[in-house]
Amino acid sequence: MSTSFRDFEHAGWDDLGVVTSYHRHISELTTGCIAELLRLARLKPGERALDVACGAGYVAAAASKQGVETTGLDFSAAQVQLAEQTYPGVRFIEGDAEALPFPDRNFDVVFNAFGLPHVPHPDKVVAEAYRVLKPGGRFAYASWCKPTKCVAFSMVYDAIRTCGALDVGLPPGPNFFSYGDPKFATEMLGQAGFVDMTTSEVPLVWRVSSPDEIIDTILSSTVRAAAALRGQSAEALAAIKHYLRERIASFEKGGSYEVPAPALVVVACKLQ
After folding, report:
1. Quick one: pLDDT at residue 194?
2. Domains in the chain, ordered, with CATH?
3. Which of 112, 37, 44, 24 is nearest to 73 (CA)?
4. What's this model's pTM, rounded to 2 decimal places?
5. Do residues 258 and 193 touch, judged by C-beta distance below 8 A?
């Protein structure tokens, strides 16, 4: 029996090695959008917030510092464990983003930072966020911008497409970059009933000391991209790494490398 996309993602993100490596090497990049995510969500002290696909708890912890009663939820036991260790004062639970274990109209804000590309049915995730929000509540998410802008991650698939094969037997999943397209976001959120959408592009940059730092991090700290790389032949993988080194080298600046990885922050409201 073939593995489902959900099982594939869950197995990858429940690997303590992957989770720890992401925490050490990629979280500095992704957490760069948190200030804008919280600003657009218009948090108020005393409100209740849910951080869906919370990972190691970065957004939940930041919201909690603003006097918001926050719960973080993730489908990975390894992520929940890391979140509890990293932010012991915040509540974290294991759960399914497509079937949230909370009653209707329970939260003022629902967050989702970089989690939508990792679920099989993002429309269900958005619908669940709508369900658990109170009238006037806000859904706020962050995701990578379209491929032409988010070079740090799109170049991996460019390299595979050019030097190897994209079809290496992985279960099909949603487009990794769709959620960073404002038009796509408008349609997705509108179908769930959300209104008054606001977007903001955060110009994140992945700064590294060598091209191989990005290549090694992709292999050790991601799930879908790492599996696509590991599925290549030895010859193709060598060619892919050469391609990536040349691409990353073009972003050299003062002895380091600064590769664009902008994210789109999106916030919308529930009226009823």
Report:
1. 98
2. 5-269 (3.40.50.150)
3. 112
4. 0.95
5. no
Residue 51 burial (CB count, 10 A) = 29
| Other residues' Cβ atoms within 10 Å of the Cβ of residue 104 | 9
The rounded distance, in Å, linking the Cα atoms of 54 and 19 is: 12
pLDDT tens by residue, 232-271 = 999 999 999 999 999 999 999 999 999 999 999 999 999 8
CA dihedral 74, 180, 192, 131 (to 10 degrees): 20
